[in-house]
Amino acid sequence: MPVEPDAPTPPQTPADDPGFPAEDRDRRFATRCVHAGQQPDPATGAIMTPIYQTSTYAQAAPGDHKGHEYSRVSNPTRSALEGNLAALEGAVHGIAFSSGVAGIDAIVKGGLRPGDHVVSTNDLYGGTFRLFQEVYEPYGVDFTFTDLTDPEAAEAAMRPETKLLWVETPTNPLLRVSDIARLAEIAHDAGADVAVDNTFASPALQQPLDLGADLVLHSGTKYLGGHSDLILGAVCTDADEWAETLRFQLKSAGAAPGPMDCFLALRGTKTLHLRMERHCRSAQAVAEFLEDHPETGRVRYPGLPGDPGHETAQKQMSGFGGMVSFALADDRAEAAQSFIARTEVFELAESLGGVESLIEHPASMTHASIPAEKRREAGLLDSLIRLSVGVEALDDLREDLDQALAAT
Ligand SMILES: Cc1ncc(COP(=O)(O)O)c(C=O)c1O
Asked: What CATH architecture is 273-406?
């Protein structure tokens, strides 16, 4: 007898929630990148986890199945990825979503109710801001955006009804660094949970759960995937109640990633540790080059000793990442747009975290959904340019920026 897709699911099986695989717990980060959550395919011995391109699974009798019954709820390729991501964040649970914003959506819809309040950084990904302001505020969830690099500002923003502190660090696009451990203390003292958007650092450079966070959010579209060929999100947590809530949201609202995207993300995380080393090295050199250039204004990169986030980044990150932002000496949006049009190796595109170098203009692209006065309040200048420094030859990257700056 066919089982209705929305029939109640049996209690969670290991396939529904693979968690942090026990055999990976003693392994080091690089080994987890390559292996965690994955075993040779039991049916064929295939080394790579197959793409289980199926919506449903045969059952011997109702409820008698091999761990999966409907791919909105779980899928073997996705389970392998979830085990891998949990292991990379050192988390008990990893839950994959169809995009980063779908992961944010599940956190807010699962954990908050009308009347609840969220404190968030005032310099954050424009899509997160849009979701908070334009989707949840009309449903009665209240948001305060403040400078979370200042713990006193965070403390002052907390209210009795604050349920969540939303931290993005380093931030998009200003690369501001907030002290996760300090913010976790402040939030927990006020009875709120802490979610950290770890997209820019990736688990290779920063492990928010170890620093006291309750939830880690990823746009897996970025460094986890690493090749600009998929859209995916993930939330990792040690808290069983959060994991249950998030899986309920996933099952009920259906923001599940497809098996092909999960396969690509799994292939991406196999080289995460290698890619991040190169991203960090090249971004540091690019930031130093830009800082010394007469045509640039302020350069933001947490690896620069003069950067306001440098000290905190040294404390909580094992590398400073592959993102660099800078303003031009001529601080006009038009100057930034014509500079961007001249780069050849740096491709003009939204997104980040892939092997190829990308360049973009936040004020007119990724952060255009933030009103101009709010952007300026947060220090996002009109000429600000954001680079995602890829893994090409460093000299080609420097020469490309140099020739584009020479014409300004
Ligand atoms: C820091 C950050 N968080 C979340 C997201 C949303 O992720 P996605 O585009 O995968 O939905 C993005 C996307 O750019 C981002 O940069």
From this structure: Alpha-Beta Complex (3.90)
The reply to whether ligand 1 has any atom less than 6 angstroms from the CB of 383 is: no
- Token pair, residue 338, equals 């014509």
Write down the domain spans for the chain.
22-269, 273-406
Distance 42 CA to ligand 1 centre (A): 35
Does position 12 have pLDDT exceeding 90, yes or no?
no
pLDDT at position 114 over 50: yes
Among the options 197, 214, 238, 307, which is catalytic? 197
Q: How far apart are CA 263 and CA 276, in angstroms?
A: 20
Contact 339, 406 (CB under 8 A): no
CATH second-level architecture of 22-269?
3-Layer(aba) Sandwich (3.40)
- Tell the residue number behind the tokens 């999966």, with chain if given: 68
Contact 96, 259 (CB under 8 A): no
Domain 22-269 identical in fold to domain 273-406: no
Asked if residue 79 lies in contact with residue 50, where contact means CB atoms within 8 angstroms, the answer is: no
Q: Is 222 a catalytic residue?
A: yes
The pLDDT value recorded for residue 19 is 80
Tens-place pLDDT, residues 189-201:
999 999 999 999 9
Our CA angle for 315, 316, 319, nearest 5°, is: 95
Distance CA 310, CA 300 (A): 10
Nearest to 184 by CA among 204, 205, 158, 203: 158
- Of the residues 78, 176, 222, 247, only one is catalytic, namely 222
The answer to whether residue 292 is catalytic is no
SS3 156: helix
∠ CA 85-230-22, nearest 5°, is 15
Q: Which helix (H) or strand (E) holds 108?
A: helix 100-111
For residue 187, name the pLDDT band (cuts at 50, 70, 90): very high
Catalytic residue among 70, 125, 136, 223: 125
